[in-house]
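Hi, here's the filled form for the chain we discussed.

Project: internal
Contact: R.S.
Residues: 479
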Amino acid sequence: MSTTERKEGTILNPDSSLHNSDLAPTTPAARTWSTYNYVALWFSMSMEVTTFMLASSLIAGGMNWKQAIFTILLANLIVLIPMVLNAHAGAKYGIPFPVFVRSSFGTRGANIPAMLRAFVACGWFGIQSWIGGQSIAAIINVIWPSTLANPSLIWICFVGFWLLNMLVVCRGLESIRFLQGYSAPFLLVMSLILLAFMTHKAGGFGPMLHAPSRFPSHAAFLHFFFIALTGMVGNWATLSLNIPDFTRFAKSQDSQIVGQAFGLPVAMTLYSFIGIGCTSASVVVFGEPIWNPITMLGRFHQPLLAFLAFISILIATLNVNIGANVVGASNDFSNLAPRFISFRMGGLITGVLGLAMQPWKLMASHTNYIGWLVGYSGLLGLVAGIMVADYFFLRKTNLNLLSLYHRHGPYEYTQGFNLRAIIALAAGVFAALIGLVVPVLRPLFDYAWFVGFFLSGLLYVFLMPVQISRPSSLLEHSQ
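And the returned structure, exactly as it came back:
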């Protein structure tokens, strides 16, 4: 690629079915994300209602608070590995996830993992929109208590928050960086204020931090531990695939590696502890454990405090919904038909499908929630395994950038589909989900992410040629 082409971020005569301005490699001018931006990304996406509620399912299952925090920390250290590995291609070549995955699945086959990722993102978009709607309704209830008798309020607020998300989508990716960069420190301060307020009201953290583990044996603990670990890994299994959608804007590899290695595990562990601490204090203050911060804040009779706290939850929910769900799904839908679906149109499709998936049912109980996490983790773990195996073990991080946007090149395989990758994918799906219908194989489903990641990755390496030669026309963005 010539200097001019590199500067403008253009690809010579790209195939229109594989290219548009949103899928094109980022230009040097667009690479503005520093280490702080990636730390802020994870702090802003971790400070949300579902993070507070993660530990609830673990303690409700019998863990004490130390075991719950350890499980969450370990899960995020595990998912950090494929996160950083898959992020490498985004920072090196400036390409989003659906373009990156063409190297392993083919120019047309890439739509298969992209749609798996998009489907999960739509479900999460609906869940986060429902939580955001609850936050708005709670604000209104605190200010005007008479609205508590109006059952339609939550639905009106739900639709209103959905429209707010669509407005941010229409403003583009740069607005997301701006929103997260400034909201992250605000959200951290507000969450620590909430923790301090609750512990002050309770005269300490409360009884939950002194409660012992309720497992009758080590075997019983380990059985629950590995299921819970899979669910916690599944919480960010989505981002471990489409993290190139963000790292394509990195100033350098070090920016994304350092930012993520610090931001993800620290933010998730800190906010999980805040959730546990606040919930433990709520036992003393309100006489019962309250895991949902929206419900907790609704118990206060101090409108100003509740209002500020709800605004924090609203910003946090908007951050994670746009960053974790809309960005990836929009690019995935755009990859289906680049000529007709832009990033903004992909975001609108995500929003509509998120409504259709009825998030209020997914959030109806903690059993539905954990089942959702474990189930989709099996689908996404195997895609991550294939991507890591292809990029690091077979290609040694070398991609032919031009061919990712052209048919009939090294990534065409068989009419655009890499049948070996599809076989590895199908085998992983079968192994990870067979436990749902064959009781004796239930552990395969309980550990779905791990089963899918390692089985599909190893099978892919076995099926592919031993060596994939370095393309003679290799084009790289040097870092």
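Let me know if anything looks off before we file it.
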